[in-house]
Amino acid sequence: MEKAATTFFSLALVLMLMHCFVALAGGAANYTSSDESALLAFKTHITYDPNHILATNWSTNTSFCNWVGVSCRHRGQNRVTSLNLSNMGLQGTIPPQIGNLSFLTYFNISFNHFNGHLPAELGQLRRLKVFH
């Protein structure tokens, strides 16, 4: 009887650990897709891209961590930490979805032509240290 109880406990523990692993893996994918969605929203708010950099490079065919101007942290899950799009001649607005880049520490869009209001969601970026 004791062996059956031990086997049952071991099986229950393995199933519980598998459930936790699947939940964590699913959560990482959600963050990754959230970062990618925020970047794609940013791209759709670009009204002029004279060198077609975002139009040709920012594609779901490649990982967003390989997109021009995007840097990621790669510890367990890809999270955007830096967005450097300075001196690209871009025009457009900054969408509120930019506030979903919760690991963003550096955001540089200087020497472009952005207009409109800064979205309040920028205030959600608690890790943001540099904004140009």
Question: How does the SSE layout of this entry go?
Answer:
Layout: H1 2-44, E1 46-48, H2 53-57, E2 70-75, E3 77-84, E4 91-92, E5 106-108, E6 113-114, E7 130-131
Parallel strand pairs: 3-5, 4-6, 5-7
Antiparallel strand pairs: 1-4, 2-3
Walkthrough of the structure:
The protein has helices spanning 2-44, 53-57, and strands spanning 46-48, 70-75, 77-84, 91-92, 106-108, 113-114, 130-131. The chain has 132 residues and is α/β, with parallel strands linked by helices. It has one domain (2-131): Ribonuclease Inhibitor (Leucine-rich repeat, LRR (right-handed beta-alpha superhelix)), CATH 3.80.10. The radius of gyration is 20 Å and the shape is globular.
Give a count of the beta strands, DSSP E runs of length 2 or more: 7
Q: Give me the side-by-side strand order of the main sheet.
A: 2-3-5-7
Query: Helix amount, in percent?
Result: 25-40%
User: DSSP strand (E) fraction?
Assistant: 15-25%
Question: Quick one: overall form?
Answer: globular
Radius of gyration: 20 Å
What is the total domain count? 1
